[in-house]
Write a structure and sequence with these properties.
heterodimer, A: about 425 residues, alpha+beta, Butyryl-Coa Dehydrogenase, subunit A, domain 1, Butyryl-CoA Dehydrogenase, subunit A, domain 3, 3 domains, B: about 230 residues, alpha/beta, Rossmann fold, five-stranded mixed sheet, Isobutyryl-CoA dehydrogenase, mitochondrial (chain A), AcylCo_DH-like_C (chain A)
Chain lengths: ~425, ~230
């Protein structure tokens, strides 16, 4: 009698556990519980609100981003619009955009927490969300009321996706030498030129383009910013082939080619000749965002590494029992915590519009992106042979994180910025 | 007079955490351990908020009996769409001696204070609900329950007590704007009176209440899921 009662209860309990895992999309294929540690907890030092933002974002990342991370990478699809819409419904489409046009009106620090949480689920998709946010912010900060009213609501809801177009085949780190031209013609500007490595290129609806309205050789002060609405362009806008990349494969990357593209003059964002300044201001925040994505990816990598070494046994013990693995983990945790502090401080300085903000954003980007790549690399090493297989996520963290040291300003340029700020006056 | 829903929420150790017993064997380790809202409570809030969005219910009130940190769970409930939150505050550390009967009595008092019709006792109940159909017109509830061996559908009058099971719904994520609004929303603090003997006593005797209205079984079906 008692035995059968136990079996029934055990069956119910088993059914519940299975239902729960399915319900919350908790773990990927093998029923592994994510290894977490109070020491790695990114909510240490945060206030109540910030903790809630982080927890909610992490829950979303675990439920919606992590399960598809590998599939999107292997299939090299275009951006997952359905997932992005879900993200936008929670307010992720314009995190630091004014609520007037649908933004969430939060701070850069809040955004950093959110992006860190999201990228622990999928670095590549989160990185695109940060780029979209940067474009929305530029429009919100510098655009006319009419232009904002026309585009921001659709951008914050991610009904329209945006791409940021600064880099050209001949102008990377030397961005001010860009050669795309914008010539006034009546009520329009005519744009000619090519932008390279554009995230979302070909799929996005809105292109924020930095183009030269000044004379050739006018440098930074001859650049203006335009909003191209792909749906309104009659001719001249085309895209290069979809690049095959080492990582960031959930977003398409293409060249954007403009051949006599007509853009209404009212689509200029802000003032003529100030475009480069807007672009650089956008990038300060963009660097915090990319750094935050690095933190999230590194967190996921450390958790994966910890999980593996506690489970994998060699020489009769789990690998976690060997001091080498222990020291590696200790170093990873230390580097992650220190990078995180710098990123959050830089975000706070940016919120406070402090004069050191630009230098700190650059420093944070250097620290977070370089340490994250080292952490992910170590985590892969800790997985042994399994780390090299695409079945395991850790190799994707390594591949996705690698480009963070290059885009939104190479880490070399970051060092130019920091040393210039250090040595000035 | 529209229907109102009182939902209990509790801040518990996160289900992902490996539970460890304290060295002195007095309790489980809770310091520095990740806590979150009981997942079943989130499902219950979701069901209540969905009923409110379908205009079947007028107000959703979240209640938590716990130490000061229980406010986190109430804020999550507010951010998910609850209208009000009531925190019955008990001293930090005393949560492990809070007995279920005491919680039930606290709920009863709140239901009475909120003038939610008659007291808690003598209400029918539908537990392990995996599906709820609320008919505000004839004041009835059809609840499909998950039981060992399959599904059972019952019909009850209102007011009633319902407990949520996993397959009832998938709780929504709180949106960023709602999290910020929840911070500002007033929630009442109700301090539990100094715990009297009755709140500490475990229920030791059970008797069938003869006059309690029962639920009518409508259908029973065997499990068809794998």
């Amino acid at each position: 009698m008692i035995a059968s009662a136990l079996t029934t209860t055990a069956r119910t309990a088993a059914r519940r556990t299975a239902a729960f895992a399915a319900n919350r999309a908790v773990a990927t294929a093998p029923a592994a519980r994510t290894m977490t540690s109070a020491i790695l907890d990114p909510t240490i030092g945060l206030n109540e609100d910030q903790k809630q933002f982080f927890e909610m974002s992490r829950a979303f990342a675990n439920a919606e981003l992590a399960p598809r991370m590998q599939e999107l990478d292997i299939l090299e699809t275009d951006l997952p619009r359905d997932t992005l819409k879900k993200a936008a419904e929670l307010g992720f489409g314009g995190i630091y955009v004014d609520p007037e046009f649908g933004g969430s009106g939060l701070t850069r620090l809040d955004a950093s927490l959110i992006f860190e949480a999201l990228s622990s689920g999928d670095i590549s998709t989160t990185a695109y969300i940060t780029i979209h946010n940067m474009c929305a912010w530029m429009l919100d900060s510098f655009g006319s009321q009419e232009l904002k009213a026309k585009y921001l609501p659709a951008m914050t809801s991610m009904d329209l996706l945006a791409s940021y177009c600064l880099t050209e085949p001949g102008a990377g780190s030397d961005a001010a030498s860009l050669m795309t031209t914008a010539k006034r013609d009546g009520d329009d500007f005519i744009l000619n030129g090519t932008k390279a490595f554009i995230s979302g290129g070909g799929q996005s609806d809105i292109y924020i383009v930095m183009a030269r309205t000044g004379a050739p050789g006018s440098g930074a002060s001859g650049v203006s910013t335009f909003l191209i609405d792909r749906r309104e362009v009659k001719s001249g806008l085309s895209f290069g082939k979809k690049e095959q990349k080492m990582g960031w494969n959930s977003q398409p990357t293409r060249a954007v080619i403009m051949e006599d593209v007509r853009v209404p003059a009212c689509h200029m964002i802000g003032t003529e000749g100030h475009g480069f300044r807007y672009a650089m201001k956008g990038l300060d925040g963009g660097r915090i965002n990319i750094a935050s994505c690095s933190l999230g990816g590194a967190l996921a990598a450390v958790e994966a590494g910890m999980e593996h070494v506690t489970v994998r046994k060699q020489f009769g013990k789990p690998i976690a029992a060997f001091q080498n693995a222990q020291f590696k983990l200790a170093d990873m945790a230390t580097e992650l915590a220190s990078a995180r502090l710098l990123v959050r401080q830089a975000a706070s300085l940016l919120d406070a519009k402090a004069p050191q903000a630009t230098a700190y954003c650059a420093m944070a980007k250097i620290a977070a992106t370089e340490k994250a790549s080292q952490i992910a690399d170590q985590a892969l090493q800790m997985h042994g042979g399994y780390g090299y297989l695409k079945d395991y996520k850790v190799q994707q963290f390594v591949r996705d994180l690698r480009v963070h040291q290059i885009l939104e300003g190479t880490n070399e340029i970051m060092r130019v910025i920091v040393s210039r700020e250090l040595l000035k006056e | 007079m529209s229907l109102r829903v009182l939902v209990g929420v509790k801040r518990v150790i996160d289900y992902n955490v490996k539970i460890a017993v304290r060295g002195d064997k007095s309790w489980v380790e809770t310091a520095n351990v990740k806590h979150s809202v009981n997942p079943f409570d989130e499902i219950a809030i979701e069901a209540a908020v969905q009923a409110k969005e379908a205009k079947l219910v007028g107000e959703v009130i979240a209640v938590s009996c716990g130490p000061p940190k229980a406010q986190e769970s109430l804020r999550t409930a507010l951010a998910m769409g609850a209208d009000r939150a009531i925190h019955v505050e008990i001293p930090d550390g005393s949560e492990k001696t809070l007995e279920p009967l005491a919680v039930a009595k606290l709920f009863k008092k709140i239901a009475q204070d909120e003038k939610m019709l008659a007291g808690l006792l003598n209400w029918p109940q539908g537990t392990f609900a995996s599906k709820i159909d609320l008919n505000a017109g004839d004041k009835s509830l059809v609840v499909t329950r998950e039981i060992d061996g399959g599904l059972e559908t019952i019909k009850t009058a209102l007011p009633a007590v319902v407990t949520a099971d996993l397959r009832l719904n998938t709780p929504r994520f709180a949106t960023l704007p709602n999290i910020m609004k929840a911070k500002k929303e007033a929630h009442q603090e109700v301090h539990a009176r100094r715990p009297s003997a009755s709140t500490c006593r475990r229920a030791s005797r059970f008797s069938r209440s003869r006059s309690r209205p029962s639920a009518r079984v409508v259908a029973v079906s065997p499990t068809s899921t794998s």
